[in-house]
Queue: 2 jobs
Job 1
Amino acid sequence: MDRKNLERLRARYGNAKADEVFDPEFKKLNAALFDKPGQRRLPYGGISTFLDAPLKDDFSDLDIALIGVPMDLGVTNRPGARFGPRAVRAIERIGPYNHALKVAPSTMCRIADVGDVPFRGRFSLDEALEDIERYFKSAVRAGVKTLAVGGDHSISYPILKALGAERPVGMVHFDAHCDTGGEFDGSKFHHGGPFRLAVLDGVLDPERTIQIGIRGSAELLWEFSTDSGMTVVHIEEVAERGTEWVIAKAREVVGEGPVYVSFDVDGLDPAFAPGTGTPEAGGLTPREAQAILRGLKGLDIIGGDVVEVAPQYDANTTTAIAGAQMMFEILCLMALSPRK
Amino acid sequence: MDRKNLERLRARYGNAKADEVFDPEFKKLNAALFDKPGQRRLPYGGISTFLDAPLKDDFSDLDIALIGVPMDLGVTNRPGARFGPRAVRAIERIGPYNHALKVAPSTMCRIADVGDVPFRGRFSLDEALEDIERYFKSAVRAGVKTLAVGGDHSISYPILKALGAERPVGMVHFDAHCDTGGEFDGSKFHHGGPFRLAVLDGVLDPERTIQIGIRGSAELLWEFSTDSGMTVVHIEEVAERGTEWVIAKAREVVGEGPVYVSFDVDGLDPAFAPGTGTPEAGGLTPREAQAILRGLKGLDIIGGDVVEVAPQYDANTTTAIAGAQMMFEILCLMALSPRK
Amino acid sequence: MDRKNLERLRARYGNAKADEVFDPEFKKLNAALFDKPGQRRLPYGGISTFLDAPLKDDFSDLDIALIGVPMDLGVTNRPGARFGPRAVRAIERIGPYNHALKVAPSTMCRIADVGDVPFRGRFSLDEALEDIERYFKSAVRAGVKTLAVGGDHSISYPILKALGAERPVGMVHFDAHCDTGGEFDGSKFHHGGPFRLAVLDGVLDPERTIQIGIRGSAELLWEFSTDSGMTVVHIEEVAERGTEWVIAKAREVVGEGPVYVSFDVDGLDPAFAPGTGTPEAGGLTPREAQAILRGLKGLDIIGGDVVEVAPQYDANTTTAIAGAQMMFEILCLMALSPRK
Amino acid sequence: MDRKNLERLRARYGNAKADEVFDPEFKKLNAALFDKPGQRRLPYGGISTFLDAPLKDDFSDLDIALIGVPMDLGVTNRPGARFGPRAVRAIERIGPYNHALKVAPSTMCRIADVGDVPFRGRFSLDEALEDIERYFKSAVRAGVKTLAVGGDHSISYPILKALGAERPVGMVHFDAHCDTGGEFDGSKFHHGGPFRLAVLDGVLDPERTIQIGIRGSAELLWEFSTDSGMTVVHIEEVAERGTEWVIAKAREVVGEGPVYVSFDVDGLDPAFAPGTGTPEAGGLTPREAQAILRGLKGLDIIGGDVVEVAPQYDANTTTAIAGAQMMFEILCLMALSPRK
Amino acid sequence: MDRKNLERLRARYGNAKADEVFDPEFKKLNAALFDKPGQRRLPYGGISTFLDAPLKDDFSDLDIALIGVPMDLGVTNRPGARFGPRAVRAIERIGPYNHALKVAPSTMCRIADVGDVPFRGRFSLDEALEDIERYFKSAVRAGVKTLAVGGDHSISYPILKALGAERPVGMVHFDAHCDTGGEFDGSKFHHGGPFRLAVLDGVLDPERTIQIGIRGSAELLWEFSTDSGMTVVHIEEVAERGTEWVIAKAREVVGEGPVYVSFDVDGLDPAFAPGTGTPEAGGLTPREAQAILRGLKGLDIIGGDVVEVAPQYDANTTTAIAGAQMMFEILCLMALSPRK
Amino acid sequence: MDRKNLERLRARYGNAKADEVFDPEFKKLNAALFDKPGQRRLPYGGISTFLDAPLKDDFSDLDIALIGVPMDLGVTNRPGARFGPRAVRAIERIGPYNHALKVAPSTMCRIADVGDVPFRGRFSLDEALEDIERYFKSAVRAGVKTLAVGGDHSISYPILKALGAERPVGMVHFDAHCDTGGEFDGSKFHHGGPFRLAVLDGVLDPERTIQIGIRGSAELLWEFSTDSGMTVVHIEEVAERGTEWVIAKAREVVGEGPVYVSFDVDGLDPAFAPGTGTPEAGGLTPREAQAILRGLKGLDIIGGDVVEVAPQYDANTTTAIAGAQMMFEILCLMALSPRK
């Protein structure tokens, strides 16, 4: 043991004030993050919000709004994602700093949990999708970027209608399923088809869309993906070619324009994300998903969502933990986007 | 089937507007409860608060404050009640109307969830108890009644210090344990002794205190209860004599003065409340507890608490459901108290 | 120990063939129940059916059809009862003999599990209710009595439309909620209102309807029950007056005509039935429910249902066990009904 | 508040040494129970033993041996009770004092956890029953009373063979099932028939046997109970007549001689004891079971068992808690038995 | 966004009939798979069968029979796999199409769930193994290939006796354990030794046998594997050399002849398959297992099994999901086998 | 199938005595491990101890002591690790042989479970840390190596004070967090800072310390790690460079001197180890952890710990399984260490 070093350390840390930090960069960040009153609270204390963000009633003075969308009328099997926002809010201690991207979003943007989309009712899928679209349009009008927590995947369609109204957006999409199916059981608006609708509405550019982690039994329903020009990366391809290849592919596909990130937790393997409505064995690991997301740094991420967290099937809350972590990764990307 | 009646019903309800109510009393209550904007929301939507009460930052313009006390440093066995407030807030659909007492508290008082006691830290039981006392004293100063959710039972001591500072209060106490033990493992301030301390501090009147549902293995530690003049009703006595007898006894004991209601969920049988730190087989049923609580109608209830909800042991959330229900029953009693 | 008795017992049982039974009544029943090939199988073996009944494709040669109705689009809070039929089928070892009623239904009637109502789709509540009505009408036409497993409580409305089409029926209804609410969130057809609709349609006779176990927060929405002439027995009344009184009341209310039995598992306390969408603390015990049901012996029970089993919230399967047991009790009543 | 009383209390308790106790009886018991070194340990510390009893390798210097019997080869449905001893040992804080019986067994007898029956193997039910008999016979020879934790109910047969070898014993039996069935699937030695075998072997006196809580679907298999002269108290009879009646009946039936107490946790309702292999809705409450057990005070209890705890179905450990509590109640009865 | 493409897509999909598919191959498959009446049902509707296959009573007109073997008398630790078939049947939405192998088995073969092996009883392991052998021999006689779901791994021995009776078969075996141990606790027929017995009986060719994923504590018991000429691939070798190497090795070992695939879910890591009797940390991922299985395409797979699914330890049903998926992968291999 | 081989196998194994082993090395090990009386017991039988080691009261005649440290007063979020030792002891069938390292520790050293650290009380973190230090110092004085099971990570500080008192030790540390934070909420002694304290006390050599698997949100608090000269390997680096690189790095860092191994189960991904107080998505797999640990073979491992197992969040016991396995891997390393 280096005696000198020990003495130096004792001198520096031995009598330091509580929480004193010496690294200049860390010092600055700590000051920015924690000196605000009320921030240093117990993780299990106070009202639970997304990523522990402050609570806010409207979109004023905001850069990024974290929005709950507790609606699962579009599921085709196990319901429950209506409790997804509640489950993700209950997760403690995600963020505020991302060591891989070296970024603390809340020091760069004004971020708040603005609560949940106000729904007119609980029985009509069509009506709910209208409510979502209206709400996200008001965010767009206010110049606020949005990061949503579902809810089932059908919510991405009205969100894209709001975010892509001006010009179609590209998309990086993590999922076990392409979700580009057609009408099903008499409804176009289920969780298996939002991206077909978004393309046909002209708000999502299929040629700037990449779908990652695809597998499972519904392949026969997804011809629209390839036919429309989307890039479909099956899970086998991720395993064989690695995350670096996926990142390069994704950046190539989405290019320079505005990009939406949609993260369905069933893209992950059920071991990591059992709490979801249509689990499929053999999926992504959180490490792979994080690596790919971080590889998108610098793209113009204009919004995102994390969907299909169904806490009824999540005995150990691993799904909500993974979902909250992915939400934070997307938030970091949004904070790092070139234009705000 | 009475044809006339059917025609009358069809005429009355057949073309009624949505949610129209005809009973005059119900009409009035519905109007009072639900016409406020934002109230008619999904039970799984929005930020979770105690009993779905509005969220508030301070004690101004309030009659009753619902307060979380996420602190379990006083437990002697299984920890976890620090997550009690979060668990109780997550329960949907308790209230707003009590059909047995025929009362809707939020139409009678100004009630809000004011969040959690702000703690200086997470390691010191003594310090935490000081923080609790300080916070509840500020409520008292503001003229606001308090209804707390623990946390372990050690929190009742500082609360009583705040609420009984002016004059000692009586107490109706539901529990498996008397919680009048002495110093234990070097600490006076554990969850097994708050009421001994409160008596010795002169803030709790033992002769106006009744303890209901007592059982379990620690009887040998509770001589203080009987020695000080408390009335101890073991669970066997509840079973033999019935709830009517318990109610009469309780009213006789606490008399006319100010009364505090402390509800430890381990007073219930573990089938109803498994999620707690020191479960004891053979306890109260929620029906018995509700009957006794409702029998206290008209007493001068100046505050209350529901403690020891530990969601880690509550796979089906029955404990949190029962705890939230008891919280609502106490709130009704507080709303019905003669003086506000 | 009586030496003679021991010798007699040894003579009788010591060399008896496996499973030999000496009591004449038991002998007869055992022969009727178990001599059929295939009956003596492992409880965990073979395809799971309701109460281990044989599986059948249609209503021919049947007296009573056990029918799954996996539909929960009518819930107002926690979804999941669409998996109720699957959960109830998975319960082992309920029946075939009821020791209290001294009856083995399968020796008296031809009973089969006919599978689930075939639904056109999974998104439309209105459409689903039509599908249910159509299916139960075909059972009625075939002269088959029905015993359904939901699904949420909205399914009782179309079932009653089928069963009461000829003449209105009476009802014994176990529930925490009256389920006679009006339009809600734009829909008449939710799980909080089936019995208002059934009365207005003239298929349910309110004056021959009794609702047992009522409690909870929605009392203000149920004026229709009392206004229409239904008898509402709150849980407090069950506790105070006892099951004998409830039985007498129920028999008095429903009288001689055809009776439907609807059992919502949330009528039970959440300790016994946590796996349900709208649990309410302080409910019936299974013992009380069984006692009341058995007290209906001899009434003309023309159909029944067990609804709101949501296995996602039923960690120990107690809800499914209780639900299956109540289903068996109703089946016994149906077998004992005067006219088949 | 009585000022004088407060002063007296402050004088007495204010400066008392830690844990000082003033009540003479309590003082004596506390001294007897806790002054032994090592006793005052954390409930979650150290090796888990039954009721926190000391661990011992043999029967020397013992009055009562607590014995695990981890064997479930006799089950007819859900296995898992082989882990029953481990689950019951893991329960904290049962005893050492029984406030209702006013007794602390460990101050009256020498009690130890002697570990588990050593089995030759894990595949043969017949062999396992021999191993159990041999082991309990060695306890009898050592003059030690036994209190066993199963394992499934088939273990009671070899235990009774050991304990009743000298003279037949009477029995108080808590269960949903009579367990007096005959050969089943080619085996006499399953968990549905131990008491038929014990009677035929002359080690159990049927006329001094009472079975309490009986219900469920296998009634047709239990003619042996009534035919042999056992007293069968169905659960409905407990509900109607009350525990006082059951106690009187039980004392009348078993009379003065030696009595064995066998407690199958499925005698309790599944809400209280879901973790068991053959649950039956509508059972005893722990309060009823405790009341009946305590009513046996003074009988000559020469041994007992708690069986069928299967922790795989016991998400909140309520079954293990109830089982451990019943074990303690039986231990108290054994300590209070007239002859040791 | 390519305007032309959008117009083309709108023209093609905008007014398409529900579920219309344009890709010729997909069109054909969809027609083959879903046009049959009754196929398009809710995943949570109807009687649960393996992989949603039709139910059948016998082996007539069948190519592949899916068979449940609910027997776990051979376990050496945690029981429960007797409920494995029920758990796997309850999994929704596996298949009907395998995107990696581009195959839909049910379009190529006649497949049915024929229910469970009829057992004479529930207590005798030896007898149960005879029942299994007899049943599978009848399948062989009927010219039907079998795919079994256990039950514990001891079932593979009688299955191999049936399938290898004519000539010994090769085997690809996924497991944490070699299962080639000798007599244990007096029984040869436990779940730790089926493959030693099969070799000694001449029905399994050790030199054409590969065991993949081996690890855990019982290595010392498995000398038979290497001594007999089996190829043992420890999990460390899978990690180091990759799945491509394993596939090549497996194909080299089993060669051209008939091959049996035995999949013990404890071959997977406990994160993916906690619900099993003898879990071992550090196992295969489902992705690896799927990759290896798919690499066996074209081999002459004459039968297979998925064993050791014990739902009691599977809170989130991930084990049953993984087991059902592996079952589907094996089914695809069987459909693709050169000779049927 | 090779006929000769089959005959040889039949000759060798066909009539072998039960459990006979022919491989000379395996024969020797089996003899050493299992011939001791009492060793061949059921995994679910007997008192549960760490890795099934014999129980012992003191340090005499011991080489390695397995020690429980049931203390979690240092946690900053979810408590529960106080039940970690109980959970790890309950895991069956880990060891006794490590196939990868080809070692059976109990044949090389005298190993025992010596129970838990005797704590003076349950409320004071400072006092508990003193108790731990005192106890481990007595082990050091007795010349016994220690392998501890926590408890939260704060326990490593007093252990290191005991083990490093003579000379500072190096460390291989698996964790999501560096645990080198400073004073927090007024306490230096929390689970986020043990290694800063150990360095400043001169008992841990930072330059011989490597931290593996680091990630999560608290990076800003860990400047001490890098500033003091520790080698920090973030999880991303493990993923990119592989375990071989990590092993080489670790061996380079710790060099020749004494090394402590500290394994925080939150170093693993929450899918593998959900049962812990501060889970972080995206962690190590058990396979990676095992590979790295085994790569440390031959180092002078003088002690170790496995910490932060909190069974309250571990529905399927995967965390306890992984923790027990890592404990065994460390034990093997200790047995293989050059000097004992």
Job 2
Amino acid sequence: MSSRIEVGVLGATGMVGQNFARLLADHPWFKLTWVGASDRSAGKKFGDATSWRLDGVMPESVAGLTVCECKPGNAPKLVFSSMDANVATEIEQQFAEAGHIVVSNSKNFRMYDDVPLLVPEVNGDHLALIAAQQKNRGWKGAIVTNPNCVAVPLAMALAPFKKYGISKFITTSMQAVSGAGYPGVASMDILGNVIPFIGGEEPKVEEEPLKILGDLESGKVKFLNAKVSAHCNRVPVVDGHTLTVSVELAEKPTREQLLEDIQSFRGLPQERKLPSAPPVPLVYMHEDNRPQPRRDIPRDGGMTVFMGRLRPCSIFDWKFVTLGHNTIRGAAGAAVLNAELMHSEGLL
Amino acid sequence: MSSRIEVGVLGATGMVGQNFARLLADHPWFKLTWVGASDRSAGKKFGDATSWRLDGVMPESVAGLTVCECKPGNAPKLVFSSMDANVATEIEQQFAEAGHIVVSNSKNFRMYDDVPLLVPEVNGDHLALIAAQQKNRGWKGAIVTNPNCVAVPLAMALAPFKKYGISKFITTSMQAVSGAGYPGVASMDILGNVIPFIGGEEPKVEEEPLKILGDLESGKVKFLNAKVSAHCNRVPVVDGHTLTVSVELAEKPTREQLLEDIQSFRGLPQERKLPSAPPVPLVYMHEDNRPQPRRDIPRDGGMTVFMGRLRPCSIFDWKFVTLGHNTIRGAAGAAVLNAELMHSEGLL
Amino acid sequence: MSSRIEVGVLGATGMVGQNFARLLADHPWFKLTWVGASDRSAGKKFGDATSWRLDGVMPESVAGLTVCECKPGNAPKLVFSSMDANVATEIEQQFAEAGHIVVSNSKNFRMYDDVPLLVPEVNGDHLALIAAQQKNRGWKGAIVTNPNCVAVPLAMALAPFKKYGISKFITTSMQAVSGAGYPGVASMDILGNVIPFIGGEEPKVEEEPLKILGDLESGKVKFLNAKVSAHCNRVPVVDGHTLTVSVELAEKPTREQLLEDIQSFRGLPQERKLPSAPPVPLVYMHEDNRPQPRRDIPRDGGMTVFMGRLRPCSIFDWKFVTLGHNTIRGAAGAAVLNAELMHSEGLL
Amino acid sequence: MSSRIEVGVLGATGMVGQNFARLLADHPWFKLTWVGASDRSAGKKFGDATSWRLDGVMPESVAGLTVCECKPGNAPKLVFSSMDANVATEIEQQFAEAGHIVVSNSKNFRMYDDVPLLVPEVNGDHLALIAAQQKNRGWKGAIVTNPNCVAVPLAMALAPFKKYGISKFITTSMQAVSGAGYPGVASMDILGNVIPFIGGEEPKVEEEPLKILGDLESGKVKFLNAKVSAHCNRVPVVDGHTLTVSVELAEKPTREQLLEDIQSFRGLPQERKLPSAPPVPLVYMHEDNRPQPRRDIPRDGGMTVFMGRLRPCSIFDWKFVTLGHNTIRGAAGAAVLNAELMHSEGLL
């Protein structure tokens, strides 16, 4: 562990930042040595500047770090970012210019042509965009992003269908409250209730999977040519976004073929045994009432995506349920896996 | 009130039966004088035979009724039925043969050619099937049914779209626990969770709206010729089923036209000012995060269906949210409104 | 209704203010014609300045009122106050000096010697403090307060025990989230959880009942001479605070005597049939698992206090459960009932 | 692991039985090789006979065991019991007579003079009762029990106070739904609600701690001579019982002394490093709003008991909050720790 790579976190005191702190506290490759936050927190100990909102208690190894301003300089080369969208553009750019590798959970750079939007099991090859990014922008560093918390399980669940030609998919999400940060959703709004709207969410869910599932052609991502429609809802669940999905395919595989494709689905993280990689990235549950967020989401540290109820759709071809941990696989854990992939590619 | 019509309830001690008891306790036209239940309860006072599961307390006027066996004879001509599906076929048939009007919430007879499956605002004219029913079956009485608790708001929300030619619709439901009766869903299964499956529900949701939205032609219902796909889920909500819906139309109205159609939608219950009719059957809410089950479902005694978020769908034409009270508008209240419609037609 | 008394609300846009708006929208004696809020809202229509957080929708009669600054002058003589504690002292004082009757839900003046802290069924006679208040302070108007939302059901439930000499009582509260205002408790904090602490609550719960249950002697309130200990907790309930209580008495009545005392308990509001008075202020439920907040709290518009499970306590004399609606009987409804009592006394 | 002790579970298909299966699946000392259940299940594979109700999935090593009838004979010497109370007396007795060590979670034998009711950190020495038990009853085997799920954290939290002379304690519990087994509490009853009653619970909570905290004198347990009063409630929490406690002491330690006693509290399980022993059995949390069930209960596999908010009580001496995992530390985990203690004593 003595030769672990030093890493930092931008926006460390927020909810996603706290998840980074937890995931990195015992990481075999990375060592969290630097935390950046707003000027208000800078100079304090992380333990004093941060109201810990996650289950359990703050890792001791992190509590004693001194919070820095979010400026490049003394930060390690590799920084994870969970900056608020309203400041992420400027700050992440400053870090990339200054030579840092910014592995970001923020939405700001996700849809740029020269920025990888990664789900390592699905499109790890999109890391090739970094070369163009550095050339275009004159950066010594780079920005790599992970998708929105709904887009991750959606893209992963659809990945095995891709070879059959995905032409349309429609999804309804039932999203956990932890996705809204802290304090996020007021308890008065969600106890015993459903909120059929999440600001800004549907465009991301409709757009991001097309890039993730796109093919790298001549150094550019050719988006998946499919129509997408999303209905996003908040439900009284702590962690785990559940999605219903109907999908139309150009080719017509049997259910057996699809199940085989889903269950044998593996990617670079599994091949290379990356530390955060779940052994089986897409777990198909055969019970008719699974997956369920409260019961299934903790498996393998929150990095598994679950599927169930694969059955014919009377409008499209197939319909199913999928589930992913929104703050781990859909946020901090996604970024950590991205960094692990980059390290295994020699990019750090 | 002295000349109110005497009515009975079959299966009175169950959850839907209790809802009947509550709705009929102060009804201006009907007077609950007879309650039927299993042999186990027969002979006891309703108040002793029944564990009251609804909010509030049992209406006193009902507590003193003596529970009878579910046999025709001394029962009033008009009986509401909330029998379990495994006994409803035989018992409802016995009552209809014996001359009773059975207004049933059970699923058993819903899809028969000669049985009306009513949402009074939408297809009150389907009551004309009764003539064929009595002729075919040699019954003096009749059976009239209301739809499944998801099918009601779905059919009602789609009714204003009908004139534009509905060709496809897909829905995901987020259903309240009260729909499963008592004890129904175990708290261990649903607290902080989503269950992506409800046994037997999806076929009903895919089938029933096509009959409800069908046209009466030459004494028969010609089903709506549309493709339907449903994803049904249980969420930790007490009352109120929330649905996301995407719909494809043959014609292409503007959003303004549709909103006008939705907001001006009225039916026979409103025209005739039936006692249980909500003044506006389909309430469109303009706030972007409404309707919500906990906040909206109590309006007008649970008989209003709500809609919101009407917006273009990138796959079909339009998408929206709809919400209805599952145990009132989707069960006991639906049957009471059916009976009121029949009374206003002179059929009782 | 044409001769209704015009009233105003200070702090009208907050949660308690919205409850005032709802309760006053159709009040037979009072007409809400004036709403005051922060400078930020002043000049806007109430409907535009206010995000409605209660179930259902904003009453139309209120939506059109123009929000004023919280300054005396054009406000009606009678104003209800739901000001934040950090500004209530100054503003309520200004209004009282200027001749207004301030019926306040704020905590600031509750414990002053010359300010009535009322539960009208229990200590309506404490209104006599107003004379001293006006004399001491040189006010033409007056301030009258209602207790904390836990203190109300606690004092009311203990009132029938008072004649037996209450020497000690200990209580544990399980409090609803609506008591914390909006946004109040974060959903991340309370979903599937208990928070065993509510800032500043226990001192109020231990102190206020002693004043409410005190006797007016020579124009002053002689506090009840009892020891009190409170444990306050937040639970995932929307409305309704549930309390367990153990109480020690000087005399030793039988359970039958106590039940008779509880069930026959009535006060001035019942005697004078005040508009907001519940017919039975203290409803004892004999089922062994009642009262329950979700099932019982809506009765009689939220003004009923419930009791149940009266049984011997092996340490003190008796133990029981009590329940009250925190935002109605424990806040806005309490203040409205106070004003009704004052009107019936000719004090407005 | 090859020399692990073979163990069985009586009542293996129920909720507590499933917890046993999970805890024993990877136990370093014990190997689950035998599962007993009702005749209805006997002969089937455990995986087929059991609807898995816990989070996650059934351990594979257990799924393949064949369910046996609950009769001694082929069962291993050590059996854990989670039999229903209505059959536990007879079956556990049969096993003890036949020479089995029955480590039981059932309530039936807890209060017998010659049966240990253990919390290993508190009264491990009560195992000495076994000698009398075997002599009195002529058994070759023995029955050892663990307390009720509320009594465990209550006794453990009070243990550090014992040396100061506990004379009275009063507690209000806020209990999780998992304590009621499956299906247990209906979701209709508990969503957004509190149920102020749990059948048969209060007598156990008032009685068992006095035995646990009692002293072994001349081979008998002399119960703690204290008065106890309990108020038991169900709240919408999945796992973890939260208790408020007020306690009166003969001596008057300072808060610092008590905190020191609590934080330094250790027992035989810690001393001997038993596999299921938490490193710190009683964790005091200094944050004013902790412990909380959802956030704290998973620590150390559910075996830690938490305390917080130690402060003076204006009626007794001290009041505080305590929290324990009801299905682990309060049921299956408690029994496993009992068996580990017995093994460390050479009693297996």
